[in-house]
């Protein structure tokens, strides 16, 4: 196994010491992934990277390299070694001569071309914003603060973005969910109980089984959320843009890229219960891909009385009837009526079509979304604006000094002394800004997308009526728009009342988080939509 040394540097006394730890942590993860054994760590705190002089850490590292103490030097980025191209090239030459290889987390293995480019980049200080932001967020995680969305059971701390406190009332519910599951109750039963007791759900109108057990691969259910076990996992998913729809969707990163940090003050569930539940969980679930001939709404239908799923009760000829699973299997739900699946499908498709066909209704949804988003953001705008102003001020000061240097009013030495702290300040503020949520984007409808969905729905309508096969595009269209269809109890002879929850984000221009999807209105079979309800 190759022996590695880590070198980290802080370029200015404007920053706290944390960034060295962030760098070391990143380098350690990187070294572990590359199968390197870390044998030494060197750092230079609060020194400018402009010159090698006075940098004890780098000199000690060079000594150790000459003594053959390690084979690979790991740095976060090459400009950590030096921002001076000659320095960097000098260090590179000497280390290469000794047979020590430089590997940078953000640059890969160093070679001469890269040292040249990176040194130049360092000189101009063009920062790779994405990496710096990631490092800033990794720092947030390392502090036990929360870099992702807020989980049920926690509240943000006003004025301290990223920090969370436990909400005891919700924590009680979390403990109960874990205890019930550990005792053998199914997520559906647990959701049903919570709904029956009118416990407010994290989102939507009902507790759903999926909120509780989620999807195993995405590990996005409450039962799998490591935060309840006093751990924060970061970098689990990344957002990518679907080239077809322009919609932002999340992808699961390989587990080796996940970052985890202990946050014992956020623990809600006892360690052994969490372990027991998750040990069991892995065996209990399996990811079933959608079957080729599956009905368009399969997996999306829910009972409006108990929150359980609906499943097929019987088939008579071509007529398939569905029923609340709890009513069917346990007789523990009063929604005992069987519903004809074709009717439900046709109602949903008609309803979606009439909704997409009515520009006023769509505009109203977009308005609701924008209003709601504004409310959510209220309060955070101030801290963002402040950070933005400080960043602008730092940028102006930086440009001012730079201009003075260019005009020759101040010497290069003076500029070399004054510019690095300002660069660090700019970088720090940029990182800070990156963890304050973005201001709400005012979304607008994308007519072309609406038209595409309408076409798909027409095809769907025809297919539903003729019992024909559905194209993949049509299936995707429905599943893009609809997240659940709730069937409310009605007596025989009455038309069933359906509630369709869906994602407005499929129809608007910019990537919206699914968390903020506008929930759909109620539809009554063959009577069209009732006025939509707004909410999250
Ligand atoms: Zn039911």
Question: If you had to describe this structure to a student in words, what would you say it looks like?
Answer:
With 536 residues, this protein is of the alpha+beta class. It folds into four domains: 3-126, Rossmann fold, CATH 3.40.50; 142-148 and 164-284, no CATH class; 301-371 and 444-529, no CATH class; 381-435. 45% of the residues lie in helices and 17% in strands. It contains 17 helices and 19 strands. It has helices spanning 18-33, 56-66, 78-81, 85-98, 112-124, 129-142, 168-182, 187-196, 209-213, 271-284, 325-329, 341-357, 359-377, 380-407, 412-435, 447-466, 472-481; strands at residues 3-9, 37-44, 72-75, 101-104, 108-109, 154-157, 160-166, 231-234, 237-241, 248-252, 259-262, 301-303, 310-316, 319-324, 339-340, 482-488, 497-502, 522-524, 528-529. The strands form six sheets. The chain has a five-stranded mixed beta sheet, with helices on both faces. A five-stranded mixed beta sheet has the order 12-16-17-18-19. It has a three-stranded antiparallel beta sheet with strand order 13-14-15. Strand 13 (310-316) and strand 14 form a beta hairpin. The chain binds zinc ion (ZN). Residues 303, 305-306, 308, 324, 326-327, 333, 335 line the site of zinc ion.
